[in-house]
Structure formats: structure tokens, C-alpha cells
Design a protein that fits this description.
The chain is mostly helical. The chain contains eight helices and four strands; from the N terminus they run αααααββαββαα. The chain has one domain.
Length: 208
């Protein structure tokens, strides 16, 4: 598996060229590489989704601001969801749809294409949901990268100078932020957000 730093670099480069699918592939690889360090005895599904769940306080502000990722369940069927209750949470959707599709060389299913938000000047983050489909913002790429960059397991990684993530109006130079999750959380707290539980009601009845 490529070094986490290489996956972070490639994700940013592919996103910059407009190739969201390859950017998402490399972002998932960055999480996978991180998860294999944190949970070396677990299978890929368990370690990947657990690593994201353990870092919802990072993923949320970066990828889905204002949404209660811990308790929201999405109206999407994925193989072997690991969230409590047997329905898919955010981590299950990322693994079951994006990571598995890109990782296996398959086309992303219709209705899951990423929405181009990260270059918007108004800071809007969109999510489009239909029964069985969820289109996330391309900001999810950077949410996944933040999990990898901020993990203490990757404190020794590097990318070319000048590569950065952003939180609100704050630019985070990646080489200054490797392994600094404990410093990110107070920064995120300076941008207060709601914590909205999304309830998809009858759409969840046939979702397993």
C-alpha cells in the first residue's frame, strides 16, 4: 500500500484537475492506510469504518457541517453495515459505496456522484438524498484527508510544501498539521455549527 502522504498528495492533485473519482480513491486509500496502522488486526471494512467513526468530530466540520453523523442513518443499502442498529451511517456509505467501488475498479453507482462545492466562495456544502441514493459534497474528499493527516499514526508523513486543507477561512498547511488532531478540535469549536439529526422516515423501512 502506498504511503499515506502519497495518497494525500495524489487526492489533492486529482481533485485539482477535476477528477473526483480518482481523488476519492486516493482519499479512501489514505484512510485505509491510517486505519491499518490503528487497527492492524481488523478486516478492511471494520477498521476503515471504525476509524471514520472515531473521527466524526473531524469529518463533520470538514465534509458535512451541521449534520449529526453519529446518529444519522442513510437510506442506502450497503453490504454488512457496521453502525449500531444495522443501518448505514456515514462511514458505511463511504466504505460500502465509494471505497469499494473505486477500490475494486468498478464504476460509482448512479446517484452517488460528488457535488462540486469545495471551490464555492459562499461556503455552501450540499447533500442530495433520494431513497437508495446519496450525493455528497466533494468536501468529503478533504474530510477523509483530514482524518489521515491529523492522525497521530501519520505524524511522520509529508507532502510537497504548500499543500493545504481549509476549515472555514483558516488554511491548514498539511506539513504543519500531521498528527495534530488534538489541536484541530479546539479550532473546529471556534466555528459553531448545529448538530442536526436527519430522519428519512419511511425511506428506511426497506433499507437493511
Amino acid at each position: 500500500m502506498a504511503k499515506v502522504g502519497s495518497s494525500v498528495r495524489k487526492a489533492i492533485e486529482d481533485w485539482s484537475s477535476g477528477d473526483f473519482d480518482f481523488a476519492m480513491l486516493h482519499a479512501c486509500n489514505a484512510v485505509d492506510g491510517t486505519a491499518s496502522k490503528l487497527h492492524p488486526k481488523d478486516g478492511s471494512n471494520k477498521r476503515f469504518t471504525q476509524t471514520l467513526r472515531d473521527n466524526y468530530a473531524i469529518v463533520g466540520p470538514m465534509a458535512a457541517p451541521g449534520i449529526d453523523l453519529v446518529n444519522t442513518r442513510w437510506p442506502v443499502n450497503v453490504p454488512r453495515p457496521k453502525a449500531p442498529g444495522g443501518q448505514a451511517d456515514f462511514a458505511d456509505v463511504i466504505y460500502g459505496i465509494h471505497r469499494c467501488s473505486h477500490g475494486h475498479g468498478s464504476e460509482l453507482p448512479d446517484g452517488f456522484e460528488l457535488l462540486p462545492d469545495a471551490t464555492r466562495l459562499d461556503g455552501v456544502t450540499r447533500i442530495h438524498v433520494e431513497k437508495g441514493k446519496v450525493r455528497l459534497s466533494d468536501r468529503v474528499i478533504f474530510g477523509l484527508l483530514a482524518v489521515a493527516v491529523l492522525s497521530s499514526a501519520n505524524a511522520d508523513q509529508r507532502v510537497p510544501d504548500g499543500y493545504f486543507l481549509t476549515l472555514g477561512g483558516t488554511k491548514l498547511l498539511i506539513n504543519d498539521w500531521w498528527g495534530r488532531a488534538v489541536d484541530f478540535l479546539p479550532l473546529a469549536a471556534t466555528e459553531p455549527l448545529p448538530n442536526v439529526l436527519l430522519d428519512f422516515g419511511d425511506w428506511m423501512i426497506d433499507i437493511k
